Each structure stands twice: as structure tokens, then as C-alpha cells.
Amino acid sequence: MLRMPEPLVCPECGESGTWKAQFKFGALDLEEYKVGQRVNWDYTWDVEGERGHHRVAAQGVLEGCPHCHAHGFEEPWDLVVIEIVDDIIVSAVRDTSGEGWWAGEWRVLEE
Ligand SMILES: [Zn+2]
Hints:
Blueprint: E1 2-3, E2 8-9, E3 16-17, E4 20-23, E5 26-27, E6 47-48, E7 55-62, E8 79-85, E9 88-94, E10 106-110
Antiparallel strand pairs: 1-4, 2-3, 4-7, 5-6, 7-8, 7-10, 8-9
The structure holds zinc ion.
């Protein structure tokens, strides 16, 4: 789970707040990451993705609104792209690619 670095405005209630996104890259425990942190690979029994790539983009999905708890918005409103460079989370932004759900939930940008 990643805490989004920039506040987002809820399409349901119109409040701005700090949202969280679920993504699957690295250890799948309930660690809450912030941008700037290193992806944890040490939770060996439930890990997605592969370590050792230079630049990776992982797709995530926003959890509910921190104010009104609305969720399940129409795609792609709730999709985010998380960029990971040398295992450090460097950015997380709304997905504006227009591609919808990626077939894999992460992709290598640069080996
Ligand atoms: Zn809301």
C-alpha cells in the first residue's frame, strides 16, 4: 500500500484528502509506503514482481475516499502508476495512459 504524495479530490463528496493505493510489487504485507522509500523484498512467502530492474512502473488502484469512503469509481479514475527506480519508489500519479488495466500489474521501463 502506498500513501499518495499529492492530495486528490473525491469525485463523490468533493473533499480533498490523502488517498492510499494498493499495488503488487515487492512484499505483499500491509506495509504502508511513502514516496522515497525502498521496496521491501524480505517478506518471502508472498512477493510479487522481480527485484533488480533499473526502472519499473507498477499499476495500483486507489482505496476508498478518506472522507466519505466511496470507492469503486469508474475506471480509469482510480488507477495510479507508481514509478520505482533501483527499488526506490520515486513517484505515484494518476494513470493517464488510457490503457485501462495492464495485463501484468507491473512492467520494466529500463533494465
Ligand atoms: Zn469522498
